[in-house]
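Our consortium's second objective concerns turning raw sequence data into structural hypotheses that experimental partners can test. To show how far this objective has progressed, the report includes one record in full. It was chosen at random from the queue rather than selected for favorable results. The single chain below, 375 residues long, was entered without modification.
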Amino acid sequence: MKKKVVSLLTVSALSLSILAGCSSNSADTAADVASSVEEAAEETTEEVSDAVEETAEEVTDAVAGGDLADKKVGVCIYQFSDNFMTLFRNELESYLVAQGFSADNITIVDGANDQATQTNQIQNFITDGVDVLIINPVNSSSAATITDLVVAADIPLVYINREPDADEEQRWQDNDWNVTYVGCDARQSGTYQGEIIVDLGQDVVDLNGDGKIQYIMIEGDPENVDAQYRTEFSVKALEDAGWTVDCLDDEVGNWDQATAQQLVANALSAHPETEVVFCNNDAMALGALQSIEAAGRTVGTDIYLVGVDALSEALEDVIAGTMTGTVFNDHFSQSHSAADAAINYLTGAGNDHYIGCDYVKVTADNAQEILDSVK
């Protein structure tokens, strides 16, 4: 920048000298000289201003990058063994590093599906002086307690995946706290599950022709709003289409494949007339598939099966026809949005108190495309 300014000043001085030497007594020449000097000064000022602005931007970027590298991020995951949250946390960590955080300053802990354990982890993060917390709560019902702990420590908080209730979110807004939720609306995922079945046509799904759809439901954690909404809205989609439904069994599988396998085995034994199996996530759907096949049933022929998450194994089953469909729970957009929200708090930009993402309905028509994107 200094070289550029010196060069411009030198040119201006030479111009002044030449003009003055040629006609030192001429008023016209003096006016020309003054004009030339003024123009040169304006050009110099403009160049200096541009150079200063450019340098300032470079410094700001460099400082911002350094700031992120120095920031400590605490991440609480409800349970590392959860298939979907494994995808989520790995992508979250990778994206945080890509945005300028130091991997050494990112700590991700396993709540082991125990709220007391997770609460203790949060308290430890507060004691350690983390700059921002990203929390996937074990129990959504504990959000108010978690929020109070974190807000009292003046630490920004980003909830992920498991949405606190509307009253809790309203508190954030009423108090203008640096707290937000990033995730998809579970009602949409449940609706998509039901629509996958409806799109097959009632004549196809009503295998025994009695005018009703007999189903069994395998739920996740009953305290989790996602489980509640997926259970409710998957069936509601059938009813909204004018179908009559008959719930043969509704069991809690707690997101676990082995648990779901046993529950579905029992349900199919007691209710061989089952036409549809709804599972709140793909891990449980994979367990359900094992029991469906063990019972001598064939998905797409004499029973239908849907899940949520679009795990690779589930997508392969959809492609093969051994699962009717699933719903893509986009861990890429959700984890990136969570990291971006954390960055916004750290840089003072702030966030809305709810940051939404969309699910994607997955059938044999687009399962390969989704599989390609997640591998």
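The partners drew two points from this record. Confidence is low (pLDDT under 50) at residues 1-31, 33-38, 40-45, 51-65. Residues 81 and 368 are 25 Å apart (CA to CA). Both points have been shared with the crystallography group to help prioritize constructs.
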